[in-house]
Amino acid sequence: MDFRFTDEQTMLGDSLARTLERGGDAAAVFELGTGAALLPEEAGGFGGTGPDVLMVFRTLGCAAAVTPLLDSVVLGAGILAAAGEGALAEAASTGGARIAVALDEPGQRYDGTVATRADRGHLTGEKAVVHGAEDASHLIVLATDGLHLVEAGAEGLAIRSYALIDGARAAEVTLKETPARRLGDAALLDRPMAAAILALCADALGVMETAVALTTDYLKTRKQFGRAIGSFQAIQHRMADLLTEVEQARSAVWNLAGHLDAPDRDRHVAATKSLVGRVALQVAEETIQLHGGIGMTEEYELAPLVRRLLAADARFGDSDHHLERFIVLGAA
Amino acid sequence: MDMSFSPDDRAFRDEVRQFLKDRLPARLSDKVRQHRELTKAEMEEWHAILQERNWLAGNWPREFGGSGWTPIQRHIFEEESALAHAPRVLPFGVAMLGPLLQKFGSREQQDRFLPRILDGQDWWCQGYSEPGAGSDLASVKTSAVRDGDHYVVNGQKTWTTLGQHANWIFCLVRTGPAAKPQEGISFLLIDMTSPGITVRPIVLLDGTPEVNEVFFDNVKVPVENLVGEENKGWTYAKFLLTHERTNIAGVGFATSGLAALKRIARAQVAYGKALIDNPLFAARVADVEIELMAMSTTNLRMLAQAAAGHAPMAESSMLKLKGTQIRQAINDLTRRALGPWALVFPSEALEGANDTPPPGPAEAAWATRAYLNNRKLSIYGGSNEIQRGIIAKSLLGL
Ligand SMILES: Cc1cc2nc3c(=O)[nH]c(=O)nc-3n(C[C@H](O)[C@H](O)[C@H](O)COP(=O)(O)OP(=O)(O)OC[C@H]3O[C@@H](n4cnc5c(N)ncnc54)[C@H](O)[C@@H]3O)c2cc1C
């Protein structure tokens, strides 16, 4: 048994962390080859395994960095690679192309219902909360007959963007007889979606680690009643519980990273997303509470972390959704 | 035992309902229901409507121009107001300063300030907390030094709710050296238009500038603005904290929040089924509803005791604890009910120039904001940790 990362993974994680610490943006992150580390060799990359995804996204989460890596590379390039679109996948992995993946539709709630239809190379339908749509060079759109590729600016494509709680942007996308090229069956999504959920959970783990570290520092320095508030046993026990939960979340993320290409992958996806979502909300609420008033403010460093944790639970099915999926998969 | 309201109380409840139906402008209740920020003018408008009926100060005796309601009547009014999505009565003048002046203020102070609270001329804010004095309120440092017929005030208050709208602030200030921190604190009324006062807004997690920092730089305050005796301010502040805890449980807010949650869960559909019919989600909603049923009876039991002249201590801490837990749980479920739509954060869409509605169900515009904003419930008014300490102390006495 060996829980260690490879030297390459560790080196990438270290240089990514340093780049982000120096204020490096998405372009700087791509320049390090981070995108290629998220793609398998067949698709022009040099990684793409569970531990690769874990290392990259936990590091991004620790720094609360906003990048298009999850949507454009893990999901987008992942689907393209599976569909045999090697060139575009590689372009996405270097940041040269930007892929947005349009799955959900208005009126549905995590159930994957799709009404968007393809008719002789043209798509018509509506897509909801499409991350990164406004900056995308290409959209991958899920229709009733599978996945399609749409180019930005295509005829009949309308994009209405808005802000999300985690600082990213998404859009309502309308397609009206929009020219599209079919990529293949919806099943092409399976592995990229599992990897994206791993990425989201690893990111949340990094965010939780930073939020807990911030809170720990605060509890040691903030004084009330003549002592550090961290010296009150009531607070100590709360932090002890929280740390124990984060440790569980860490193992859940490791579980999924280790089973991303295993036959029981789906069970691990459900288990990990359910547990991490629950703990993410607990960390968000507890770290605010233990800070007192300052934890409620927009200008304090905790604010973006908390909102990112809420977003992590709400995306790709929340903790209850995956709890139910786990039950269904276990019964099968 | 008879757990129903008396015929008089039921008649009063009907009267309140009718009043809200007739006089609450939909313009205001719509905004409240959508958790949108009310403007200063809108809050003042509602105060004026209530005052016209002499219903603004339900907790004041009639001799001071209040409605002289019983605790049960106040409860009924607050609950019905919340259910009708009426703006809340701002507590700072009506619920906090008013009773304090009535008990400890001079005749002159009562005559000068109480009518101005009722007719809306003054907007009060509460200047207790400081950067270094939150839970440990007795460690306030803002100083007031006597200089002839004035005090000269220096220091900083913080978390001052809606201080941006206020023209008066009541403060705990340090006037004397003290053997114990609770000594040497005085209760001072300060005109916010005095030279030397700066107000800086603090934006909260939900994007609203609901609280402020207030800085005092050599602010001159006439000695007649001292309430009661110098160095006795802590006693007065404690009177407020323990005595004037109206609506601490927020039963009305929880009840209307639960109704909104169920409405959303009926409209959200997954796998061809309404979310409210999903056994897992239905169980989560049922859990809070059961808690709320018990808590509202706890609340009524306490009210009945208060009506019989018993001053609650640990009980009001229990209500604060349970009440905030229930409201926060409802906020959490409401946000979660919206699924991916809870990710949308339409801060621009709400108050900004563009009028296009935010995407998704209408509730997506406020559910996450309400969730984030109401994290404050367990922090302010004595944090839930402080309340647990009070409950434990009343039991163990250690
Ligand atoms: C939205 C909002 C509005 C507010 N409005 C006003 C206002 O209008 N006027 C005003 O004066 N104040 C106001 N407050 C301030 C509020 O009363 C304080 O935030 C509160 O008293 C907590 O103080 P603090 O923020 O300094 O946290 P701290 O006291 O530093 O507490 C930090 C954490 O430590 C915990 N803690 C502290 N002491 C103990 C202990 N002995 N045992 C166990 N745990 C402990 C707390 O529970 C909390 O979790 C407002 C606050 C907020 C968030």
Task: Give the key terms.
heterodimer; A: 332 residues; alpha+beta; Butyryl-Coa Dehydrogenase, subunit A, domain 1; Butyryl-CoA Dehydrogenase, subunit A, domain 2; Butyryl-CoA Dehydrogenase, subunit A, domain 3; four-stranded mixed β-sheet; four-stranded antiparallel β-sheet; 11 helices; 10 strands; globular; B: 398 residues; 3 domains; 13 helices; 14% strand; binds flavin-adenine dinucleotide; oxidoreductase activity, acting on the CH-CH group of donors (chain B); AcylCo_DH-like_C (chain B); flavoprotein (chain B)
Written account of the structure:
The complex is a heterodimer of chains A (332) and B (398). Chain A has 332 residues and is an alpha+beta fold. Chain A has 3 domains: 7-93, Acyl-CoA dehydrogenase/oxidase, N-terminal domain (Butyryl-Coa Dehydrogenase, subunit A, domain 1, Orthogonal Bundle); 99-184, Butyryl-CoA Dehydrogenase, subunit A, domain 2 (Beta Barrel), CATH 2.40.110.10; 189-331, Butyryl-CoA Dehydrogenase, subunit A, domain 3 (Up-down Bundle). Chain A has 11 helices and 10 strands. Chain A has helices at 7-21, 26-31, 34-37, 50-62, 69-82, 86-93, 190-221, 233-258, 265-291, 302-314, 319-331, and strands spanning 99-102, 117-119, 122-131, 138-143, 146-151, 157-163, 169-179, 181-184, 223-224, 227-228. In chain A, the strands form 3 sheets. In chain A, strands 1-4-5-8 form a 4-stranded mixed sheet, with helices on one face. In chain A, helix 4 packs antiparallel against helix 8 (233-258) and helix 5 runs antiparallel to helix 6. Chain B has 3 domains: 7-119, Butyryl-Coa Dehydrogenase, subunit A, domain 1; 124-232, Butyryl-CoA Dehydrogenase, subunit A, domain 2 (Beta Barrel), CATH 2.40.110.10; 250-396, Butyryl-CoA Dehydrogenase, subunit A, domain 3, CATH 1.20.140.10. In chain B, helix 8 (251-267) packs antiparallel against helix 9 (279-307) and helix 8 (251-267) runs parallel beside helix 10 (314-337). The longest helix of chain B has 29 residues, at 279-307. The relative contact order of chain B is 0.09. Classes of the chains: A alpha+beta (332), B alpha+beta (398). The complex binds flavin-adenine dinucleotide (FAD). Flavin-adenine dinucleotide sits between chains B (126-129, 134-135, 159-161, 210-211, 376, 379-380, 383, 385-386, 389) and A (222, 224-225, 229, 232, 234-235, 289-290, 292-293, 296).
